[in-house]
Amino acid sequence: MVVILKRNAEHEKVNALMRQFEDLGLKTNLVEGTETNIIGLIGDTSKVDEQMVLANSVVESVRRVSEPYKAANRKFHADDTVVDIHGAKIGGGNFGVMSGPCSVESEEQIIEVAQRVKAAGANFLRGGAFKPRTSPYSFQGLKAEGIELLLAAKKATGLPIVTEIMDIRHLDLFSDVDVIQVGARNMQNFEMLKQLGHCNKPILLKRGLANTIEEFLMSAEYIMAGGNTNIILCERGIRTFETYTRNTLDISAVPVIKHLSHLPIIIDPSHAAGIPWLVEPLAKAAVAVGADGLMIEVHNCPAKALSDGAQSLTPDQFDGVMQSVKHLLDVEGKKILPANC
Question: Which residues, in sequence order, are CB contacts of 297 under 8 Å at separation 6+?
């Protein structure tokens, strides 16, 4: 249920109304928008008498929300959420570009790539320290050492770092990581999502390759239910019968999610396509359809990459993609803000 408040409603009366709802065992969420303030109610609202609520002097109207996700619902939060990571912003007209290698392999490699992607216009460095691999014999990442190398690249370039968590028991290792990524395989690892809901860090949540949009938003709801509202969604392609591409990019997910939710959503064309030459057209499509950012794999020598080299761009190729993206962003009136690190 959403309770829409009147303009200039007295704070004391609003607080008193929220206490009444909480006395009924409901969780309240006050959202102050640019034009409208609302109280979102989470829980069993069947016991709430709408007429009694409407009789309150600070209430403009009441709406019931049928969708199972509440905190992630745009009805609860009309304005776009803007996630701010040290000045680099995603959402609300701010475009974020996360770039870097699939796996961190050495200090020389990650710093070289970080410098090149920053020069091209990326405002986040992504890189895998812990790597989920289909085969147990494939390179699994440098783990804690990989995070240390990412931090060295951050020190050298000022770029905030994004890396994936594989096990919630590793959370202490992520204390200096700027954005914690939850990969597609862990999108419905609900115990992990609950724990991340209690941490004070932005979460990049990737859609599972066989999950619906509602399931995707419900996973975000798990994190938000714990109090962490700094969530960036990522569409990275879903599994279909098509085999030419690695996955099928569900480009329609962007406008659908922006209609249903206030959370920012970015596109990962590298994992969606698995083919370097497809990254640029898919990145341009992401901008055109209203995405809030991109995640693109870049390696200084893809032929020698320890993981996903076949889909990685070279730094020179990434330069070309960014030129195309920046041109479209200028047309759309969106901007890429550098971090203040």
Answer: 99, 100, 101, 102, 126, 270, 271, 308, 311, 312, 313
What is the pLDDT of the chain when averaged over all its residues? 94
d(CA 100, CA 14): 47
Output the CA–CA distances (angstroms, integers) from residue 190 to 19, 76, 194, 307, 332, in the order listed: 30, 23, 6, 27, 37
More confident residue, 154 or 138: 154
- Tell me the sheet residues that pair with 2: 40, 63
Please state whether beta strands 37-42 and 2-5 pair in parallel, antiparallel, or not at all (unpaired).
antiparallel
Instruction: State phi, psi for 340 to the nearest 5 degrees.
Output: -100, 20
**What strands, in cross-sheet order, belong to the sheet with 37-42?**
27-32, 37-42, 2-5, 59-63
pTM listed for this prediction: 0.91
CA distance 248 to 209: 9
